[in-house]
Fold:
Amino acid sequence: MRYRHVQARPAARRDLPRPPRHPDVIVVGSGIVGAACAEALTRRGLRVTVLDHAPLTSGTTARGEGNLLVSDKPPGPELDLALDSSERWPRLLAELDAEGHGPGGPALAERCEYEAKGGLVVALGEAGARALTGFAAAQRAAGVTAYDLGPDEARTREPHLTPGVRAAVHYPQDAQIQPVAAATALLTAVRGRGGTLRSGVRALGVERGADGRVTALRTSAGTLPCGAVVNACGPWAGHFARAAGAPLPVAPRRGLVLVTAPLPPGTVRHKVYDADYVGAVGSGDADLRTSTVVEATRGGTVLIGSSRERTGFQERFRAAVLGELARKATALFPVLGRVPVIRAYGGFRPYTPDHLPVIGPDPRLPGLWHATGHEGAGIGLAPATGELLAQLYAGERPRLDPEPYRVGRPGLVEGEGAQCSA
Structure:
């Protein structure tokens, strides 16, 4: 497959006003992935407009845990994205800080609550212990830093863990960030470079020129001329792709999270999860899958997940799911059995049948680009996703092989009708 690239224009001199004209790119979706794409494109001097039908960053990004994980991904394309993003996140925050967009005060990494706390994956049975150590060995061969721990070493790192732990693996590359703060920082840089941010504007489809290329985005606020459109609509990406005339099998997969009352510092020190979380992430089942994930926030509250369920855009929570999350969390950390849950929240994540994001141009519709399908990993994969899309758009040689994420890969667009249903 050959990509038709558009050469990026050099950044305008600050002392010369730009003549008013339409943007080079409109990014549809202001969540972390759309924000990362817009940031990477404006860094190359492109004119970008970001629009969203809702308040900025209020969708899936606002309902995530802020996980930046390499520990849950087997060797392959998703792990490649995760490792690249793991390196990029702290560097990107430092670069944006140096650029000087946004308010002063604490460093941007501090304001975004970036914390390289590391992850601890534990197994509660002998079979799970063998599977966990084998999985970690394969990851180490792919470049992941992972240290096998015995039960006593695991409880030294996490004193409140259940005595039932049989094995653990420490992943120092795992980190955490406050997702809304991070997305806002990226969008602030976009606006500071001359980009436009618009909320409350619904994308309805695209206009094509005589040559079949995208020439404009049709919206609830009128038709907006542009050179290209990026579909970064998250779980709504399938809807927008169909409206644009280039369907994709992206469907919503719902997840729920419990939030406890604040606990003393150090009660939970890492992001800790049961080894069965990896299986739940990779499952394609429409039925409910739950696994234990526990982590503390800067404010002392503890986030408890996770659930995955393909129910369309159904908002109602089921008490049975919340109860199962709580039961599994207290089995891993008995101390949580004495802590009240103060709230629960949920969100929809963009699911694809092969569990890989879609990143790049759509060969069926020149000028339409996609950056979606990250499911629950969008926060962690955003910087690498934005950089890859911007490199392809600008005609640069990409650091990562774009082939595994392309729109036309086998099995992605064939027979999408059933999988796209919401």
User: Anything to note?
Assistant: Confidence is low (pLDDT under 50) at residues 1-19, 279-284, 415-422. The longest helix spans residues 77-99.
